[in-house]
Batch of 3 targets.
Target 1
Amino acid sequence: MEKIFKEKNKNYFEVDSILSTYNNKEFSDKNRNLRFLELSLKNGYLIGQIAIRNNIGRILRREANYDQSIKYHKKALELAQKIGHPEVEAFTLNLLGSCYRRDDDVRNALNCHQTALTISKRIKDNTLNNKKNISISINSIGNIYLSLQQYNLALNEFEKSLDISKELDNKIGIAINYENIGFAQENLLLFDDAIKNYEESLKVNEELNSIRGKIICYNNLSSVYRKKGSFSKALQFIEDIYPIAAEYNSNYYLARTLSNYGGALLKNNNLDEAELKLKEALKVAKKYNIKKSEIISTGFLADLYEQQDKYDLALEYYKKSVKVEKNAIGKKNISYVNNLISKHDLQSKINEIAYLETQSEIESLQFYRNRNILIITLITIALLSIALYSIYRQRLLNNDRKILLLEQQALQTQMNPHFIFNALNSIKLYIINNEQKQAVYYLNKFSKLIRNILDVSKIKEVSLKEELATMDLYMSIENIRFSNEINYQVDINPDMNTDTIKVPPLILQPFIENALWHGLSSKKSDKQIKLTANKVSDTVVEVNIIDNGIGRNAAAKIKEGKSLKRKSVGIDLTKERLKTFSEDYDDEFSLTYHDLTNENGSPAGTKVSLKFPIA
């Protein structure tokens, strides 16, 4: 091994592979690793410094020493950025994210894995190591969804990661993803499906002779059989793996195994031994801040003391379990919301302009709210009126909701704020009118719309077919406020293959919105929007948005007559996006407006023509 450090092997992944191969032998010794680190520093060998620091970080993580592990990975990340090696940077970010995740720091974990995924996807040369990095990032994001109890979302990520692992014939990745899929299914109460996937994972881990993998699989099989009611089988699995877990140098897996061991003994009415194992598990979990094992152990101890009619102790441990779980889940939910807000960024311009547009309105609402607080408080004190106080509280809550909405609009970066605000307003009327079936129906459509937006917000282009489907969903939401009186038609040339034609995501939405609110909102009846698409040449496709509204001149006069004039930035930003999109093609985009008239020369609507270059 010293030869590698003296000759300064430049292939990071070869060096890391050697370290990983001997990770349970000579390289599991931190002192030996520190000697190699000293040798790398002496020789100015940066690749070696990164590999050794990451390896020490892995050893410390296995010992549940997360603070020190994070320090080593952060220094490795700093060096990877210094040498300008994106694959090594993504690899190190995934290791750092896994450490944060073990420490229940979901916010930093999600940031690390998302950044690693972004870096990997930007690398043009899609090497084997880069594909592995992508698979690890996706799997890790799935594990974060697991910790947030978003099991269906987690399944989607694991299945994507499994496909990549199978494509690469990455046995370790295959084993991990089968295990993760099983865990998600177990929590969805799909016990038989979970057992099948755990067994698939165990099969691969036995082929690899992975001790860590076997410990995980045996623990999972014990857990799922316990939940299924097969208590003797659950005990057999955990008894078989406990001696191995006790010898394996990992406090995290020792605490987990002890917790499951105690739970299996409890279900088999071996209460004395169960108490010993659970208290031992709780001791390890507390010492190394392993929250999940602490929650499980205290919960089982509460059940155990209840069976023994020791109700005071049962209540004490039940409260401990609830308290630990509440604190952990509360922290995770906050992290989940904060990270989800920052996950999907469209453009920084939307952020800045939306902030400026809403800031004055926020201040106005805050002033109005504060004034009402003062006035209504004085009236309440003077009249001792419960009715007025109730009205005050309702108004205060409404204003708080409005302020929160506006603040989210100003801070969100992943989608057009006006787009979401308008869609939410469409559903709000049903909620206000207590029309539950309609509210649920359109809320389902809205959730699908949001999911589509989140899916496309992280990519540069989508197929025309996907864009048209999203617009159809958008129109179904917008049509609520028009009492479904808008006739929306789509006419696509049947000779076109909309699956292969690429356009920027959500590029048609601002024009359809303009047609709705400037062209049709002031019209009394017979409201129509027609969207057509046709190839005008081998390299250009034309999309038309046609409405039979009042026309641009009449709309401009109505807008001029309004006391509050807000500058619309949607079309300008769309032009910028189209300009950027067209830079990768020989042809340029074009945007033209046509004022439509009837036989008498009167305005009969507007036609917007967009021409996109295609490959």
Note: Residues 23-27, 332-356, 402-415 have pLDDT under 50 and may be disordered.
Target 2
Amino acid sequence: MASARKIRKVDKENRRFNEAWTNLYFFVESNAKCLCLICGETVAVLKAENVKRHYTLKHASTHNRYEGDQRKEKALLLQKNLVSQQNIFRKVDDESKKYAKVSFVIAEKIARNMKPFSEGDFVKECITSAIEILCPEKEKAIKCVSLSRNTITRRIEELAKNTKMQLNELCKNFETYSIAIDESTDITDTPQLAIFVRGVDSTFNITEELLALCPMKGNCTGAAVFKEIDTALEKAGLTYDRLVGIATDGAPAMIGKEQGLRGFIQRKLESLNVSKDQILWYHCIIHQESLCSKIFKFDHVMDNVVKAVNFIRSRALNHRQFRNFLDEINAEFSGIPYFTEIRWLSRGRTLKRFYDIREHVAAFLEAKGNLCINFDDDKWMNDFSFLVDITDKLNELNVRLQGKEKLIHNLFGEVTAFQKKLDLWIAQIADSNYAHFPCLQKQSHISTMNREFFVSELKRMQEEFARRFKDFRACEDQLKFFSMPFDVDPADAPVELQMELNELQSDFDVKSQFLNRNLMDFYKYGLPHTQFPNLTCYAKRFLVLFGSTWMCEYLFSRMQLIKSNKRNSLSDAHLEDELRLALTNIPADIEKLLDDSKQFQVSH
């Protein structure tokens, strides 16, 4: 029976090269193979009969004349020739790797600066022109570097893949992590779902990176968003039992408890027997601040300002004449920006610039016969001045909330401080004190009715802040235990932290570390982790929380630069690759890419 027949395996016979074959048959061992020094062919099986048969059939007639010492010398000569040939190929390979490394470095810079893939040819042309002047003898070297569009495309694909692999390895070591999610459409109206991850490992190293950019080809429902997130987490090796926070834009598809993302994730946690209370959900703190700022309608002010700005900006002749007018009178500013409703800072910037050049605007509008604004109306000017001041303060808060790697307690602290400022402003304006409202302070006639109106508007904003930030306020005590462990009452802390907080507050050495380091460094270097294990775990939970989706918004602004009208055919995969390299803090391992088993072709 064939099934019962014993089949010998060559690799199990432990056959080895016999050094005597070198002088007998002119064979050597090279790369675990038996190589003929005469013709360069190899014998598949290390067996004396096979080696002897090859020599007898192909070389015996010409090489049997070598005997004794002469045969040994011939074998040595053939071996030297082989080594010389191998060194030549190795040198060529090393040179090609240098050229390939240059193309990788340039490709990475092209991606980080969000330039088109075709920029490689332009870069090569510039370098070549410079070398022809500065060092003509190096001209051949740069011409060997391949920077064609296809090469740059491949390089960026490999760099992005390498960076993502490194991120996946880091994700495996996360003890806790959180995600930030937002969605926006690109230039081709394709919804792109951005997923950012922030995680911490056992040594308190924090990683904040783009996890995935997912094109949503269908409807952006809660089920579709959950499917993309679930896939992204699985590919990165991130499990739900380590997920502690999710920040979203507050859309129904995200926070809906039945058909929204929140409902699907909670059901997923239940199926895995993971407590759904472990995840803290946050509506982006910057988005909420922006929504609070919109409570100030002041339509009678904004409508007139927008009409005046549009009258100047929407007609090329008016815009040109207005700029020339400002130049003639040596005005501080050369123009006025459009107002864009969807941009966070647009209202404040437009109002502030309009206020600064209001006299010039009034003169220009009067010359043009456009009387859409009555600058002599005291009530309108009071409302306008108040709106300029308060939007300027809201813009200042908005800017403070923006940025990478912001810890959630710092963001909430900025909001809390602004709420306290509102209390102060309400009391001061009610008492006719406009010290913190410089534009309003310049107005000569502010009636009691105006003052009461401003107070009521500030109170409405105060109520709006309290309503929108109630989720953050609900976990204020938890944030205090994390950010101010020496200033809280241990009795108010969770049971698992009470004993450790008592010990911590009695340890003067640790308190000294807390006072002399920032919070991140304190938990990383100043807190004895083995002595305070529960407090260590508690800190890791809050260190990774996203308080906003600012990183997603930042990605979308970069996306508009990369996938523009001139690059609208850019594929979704290449868009993600370029954005990943443009935003990542993880340097690509170019040396590893060069060491991979591949051949690098030089440019011709």
Note: The radius of gyration is 35 Å.
Target 3
Amino acid sequence: MTEPRLALWAGPECTVNRVGDEYIDQLECTGFAGRLDDIDRLASLGIERMRFPLLWERTAPGALEEADWSWPDERLARLRALGVAPIVGLLHHGSGPRHTDLLDPEFPDKLAAYAAAVAQRYPWVDAYTPVNEPLTTARFAGLYGLWYPHGRDDKSFVRALLNQVRGTVLAMQAIRRVNPAAQLVQTDDLGFTSSTGPLAYQARFDNTRRWLGFDLLFGRVTRSHPLWRYLRANGATAAELQALVDRPCPPDIVGINSYVTSERFLDHRLAHYPPELHGGNRRHRYADTEAARVCGTPIGGFAARLREAHERYRCALAITEVHMGCTREEQLRWLRDAWDAANTVRAEGVDLRGLTVWAAFGACDWDSLLTRRQGHYEPGLWDVRSPEPRLTALGELARQLGRGEAFDHPALDSPGWWQREVRLVYPVHGEAEHKPVQGRPLLITGATGTLGRAFARMCELRGLPHHLLRREEMDIADPASVAAALARWQPWALVNTAGYVRVDDAEADERQWRENALGPAVLAAECARAGVRLLTFSSDLVFGGDQSSPYEEHDAARPLNAYGRAKLAGERDALARWPQALVVRTAAFFGPWDVHNFVSQGLARLQRDEPWIAAHDQVVSPTYVPDLVQAALDLLVDGERGVWHLANDGAVSWAEFACRAAEAAGMRTAGVRPEPAAALRQRAPRPSFSALGSARGQLMPTLDAALERYVEAWRATG
């Protein structure tokens, strides 16, 4: 009899954590809180279970009798109608409502009272995670001081952990009084720590501690447990520990979470690392960094963690979070690796019930570990920056896995960054092992241009095989040349960055039509014949400046100059010949790898005490080249098509742009000299307003954020 295939589960990132007096609610940040049809989106993946956030702070922020059940009522009913079973979570990296916290002696009983109310209202729910990742939360809130109640000592850590574990036990007792068959699906991060020789004792402690939440629930923390003395020395009473031994609450399913950043390396050689990684204990100072960045042997990942958990507990397991905040192809590779690992250990006899695609609608501000509200968004299976959540290539991969279908994306041919040589940024510990970049390439035209070189640089970083083509290797306006290049390199996609860029000269130079209009049309026709994806670029200068709000993709194009007319003809002809093509309109490049752009030249003038002359009556949307390339590559990997606007979020005159760049660089703006465009002797007429917005999704960071990163790179290069 054939064993059932691995079940796909899913869940939205749902942390509601508190920093000081402020709560950061991921369900609000990603919009999941307001979209009932997200339940249908998740069900469309073919999932069997959903980790459902019925969170204490959201449902009953005050007195329990005043709880508002309308939100979970509607969504759980929809899940039930769709045939998707929930795993209900009550607390997710949180500290509860304002009337309690993780150090409150009454916290366990209060959580249990909420759990009882949930079970009574939804007696049919058969699986619960009362507290997500109790050990991880105790570390962040009780040991590191990052989350409320901001403890920074072992006693706070121990109490926060025991309160969460005791709360889980009492919650499950309350739930099982209503539904005796209810299962406990207990999650935690099981990242492994390795170290240099002198710090082996600390690595052993960390690797023992990571099991502590599970060990307590399984009733394993007896007097012989390696951490019994540590717990007792830091406030745990013998009676409360013994109570967990006498009346354990073993999980029915142990949920394994693991991230690249979970795997740590401790190094006593501080000189190898920047000061921000320095830390230590009472015995040694050491650096604590991601193991992937220094260890020669790649991280063990899910396969290693699952085998460890199976060996330790011999119970049913699940992978309860698979997510990576990274570029799209790396997200695909991480999910692929997790799925492969899961099926490998299942074949070895591990009882693995499901794999959970996590952060389905993305996550916000995890780059600061939720300590600052900055609006930093990481897409997931859907990208919520569009008017409606937009399914990404990651979502399509999840859907194929859920349906048991094969999924073939060229980006999956290469290994993830955690397996490539690029991962190693510090002196290597041990013999370096890495996998090569391989697979069908991207072809990139425009070898001598700023944008072409930027794409090649980013493809190198992202592990995307590529060829950066010179004109003699492929003439974009010659069908035979294009067909020959496609036949030779067999690419999965072609990125066209070639073109005539001198706007004023284009007024009198007929060559610009060949490069800007005919070239994209030829490329599209040949790519259509070969079934190759195409990304080509257009300009804000297709617009005539006849409106005062940023132009969106659907707005009428009325170019004022020859360059704009050619660009418009190029994008229209390209889409007519290959409707699957992706056309990106953008504007006003600046970047760290080009000394000839507006900002680089202007800052150089200010350094020489020369005036920086800029038009004050032409409004544009400046575009930071690294942001543009990253966003465009993500769209290409997603298989997006049609016209997209990609520019940093912000509409400024050239003079205002110059002032903001000068301020970001710490220079006086007095050197910026605003002039009317008429005084700049521009041969080609320009629109007075050509700022770009997007009706399809604002994927680019703000202009101020881009300028900060530009200045950082500019200073680093002297």
Note: The mean pLDDT is 95.
